[in-house]
Amino acid sequence: xxxTLLQTDIAAEAAEAIDAVEAAPVAQEMSYSLxxxxxxxxxxxxxxxxxxxxxxxxxxxKWWMIRRAGQIDKNFMNDIRDYIHEGKIKSAQTLCTKYDxxxxxxxxxxxxxxxxxxxxxxxxxxxxxxxxxxxxxxGLPYLATIAGGAPMIGFLGTVxxxxxxxxxxxxxxxxxxxxxxxxxxxxxxxxxxxxxIVGILAYFGYNFLTSKVSNVVFKxxxxxxxxxxxxxxxxE
Length: 236
Hints:
Helix content: over 70%
């Protein structure tokens, strides 16, 4: 009889334990994709998305333009020297028109002014060079602005998200739940991450393009010096 009662008590306790486990709330594992995280960031994520598209467009466009500007035949100046020494000015100008590059346009401008004082020729060549450099650098300030502005926009989203989280806590009164604060902070930090990603990519892209422009400018200055030396050489 006693053994039967013990078995009954043990079975009852086991049943209660099972019911308690089943009734206990199961913690829901949080897993979000990148799209879900972007949506959680709010409308400022749309601004960051637009800035990222603009940054990618500017980088691709300027990279292609600068790459083409730096491409010039290594025998270009030697051919120009031979034509000028032989008195084939038209042939030298025709050779320049075959290349779509700042160096070729600068040399073409100088050739068209052969016969004038060397100071006038150098000034004309340098003016064309300044125009070409300005054309290459056009659009880079926008990329620099995105590099500096995107993290600030992300930080703005974080601040507004924190304000919204604390506002919800204040409205909750005595029914404050820690998830109310943690969820708001989580959503607020997404904009900071997005802003930093866009800003870092734009920053590296800007510096990369700036270095490429510097390389093209160096080639332009070298070509200008070689051309002016060429005009000072005695014809054979």
